[in-house]
Design a protein that fits this description.
Blueprint lengths: L18 H4 L1 H37 L1 H5 L20 E8 L5 E8 L6 E10 L5 E12 L4 E7 L10 E11 L4
Antiparallel strand pairs: 1-2, 2-5, 3-4, 3-6
Length: about 180
C-alpha cells in the first residue's frame, strides 16, 4: 500500500479566494436580507405616520362615522344595490359544543346570479368579541332567498351572545 504524496504549493500558485468570493450565494442572500430589512424599517415609519394622519382625520369625522360604524364593509362599490342590504341576521344560538351560531337569510337583490361571503362577529353580553364566523353561498339566483348559518369555533361564555355582520361580499357567479 502506498501513501499519497502531498505536494506543497509552489510560490506560483494563485492566492486563495476570499470567503465572500467562495460563497457568492450565501453572500447574495444575506445582502438581500439586509436590503429588505432596511426597506421594511423605513417604510414602517412612513406607515405609522400615515396611520397617525388617518387617525387624526378620522377623529374630526367621528360624529359622521358613528352612524356608519356598525355597517358591514364590502368590496363592492355598488351604492344603489349594496350587498349589505342582501343579508339579514336571524337567531343566535349556542350549539352542543358551546360554540356560537347565527342564522342568516340572503336575498339576492342584484340582477345576476351571485356568490356571497359573509363574515360575522359574535359578542358577549358586554359587547366584547368572542369569535368570528363565515358563511359562504354560491350561485344564488337573482331575487332568490337562501337560508344559511355562520358559526364560530370558540366556546361562548354563559349568558347572552349576539352577532353582528362585519363584511358582505357579493360577486357575480362565473358564467352568469
Amino acid at each position: 500500500m502506498t501513501t499519497p504524496e502531498y505536494a506543497a504549493p509552489s510560490p506560483q500558485d494563485p492566492k486563495k479566494k476570499t470567503w465572500v468570493r467562495r460563497h457568492k450565494f450565501v453572500t447574495g442572500v444575506a445582502g438581500l436580507a439586509i436590503v429588505g430589512g432596511t426597506i421594511a424599517a423605513t417604510s414602517g415609519g412612513e406607515q405609522a405616520e400615515a396611520e397617525a394622519k388617518a387617525s387624526s382625520s378620522s377623529a374630526a369625522k367621528s360624529s359622521e362615522s358613528e352612524s356608519k360604524k356598525d355597517e358591514p364593509l364590502s368590496v363592492s362599490s355598488n351604492k344603489l344595490n349594496a350587498p349589505k342590504d342582501d343579508v339579514e341576521l336571524g337567531d343566535v344560538t349556542v350549539d352542543d359544543l358551546g360554540t356560537p351560531q347565527v342564522d342568516l337569510t340572503i336575498t339576492n337583490h342584484s340582477s345576476k346570479t351571485s356568490d356571497y361571503m359573509i363574515d360575522v362577529e359574535f359578542l358577549d353580553a358586554n359587547g366584547k368579541r368572542i369569535d368570528t364566523g363565515t358563511a359562504v353561498e354560491n350561485a344564488v339566483a337573482a331575487d332568490q332567498e337562501v337560508d344559511t348559518q355562520a358559526g364560530g369555533l370558540e366556546q361562548a361564555p354563559s349568558g347572552t351572545v349576539t352577532a353582528k355582520v362585519l363584511t358582505v361580499d357579493r360577486f357575480a357567479t362565473a358564467g352568469s
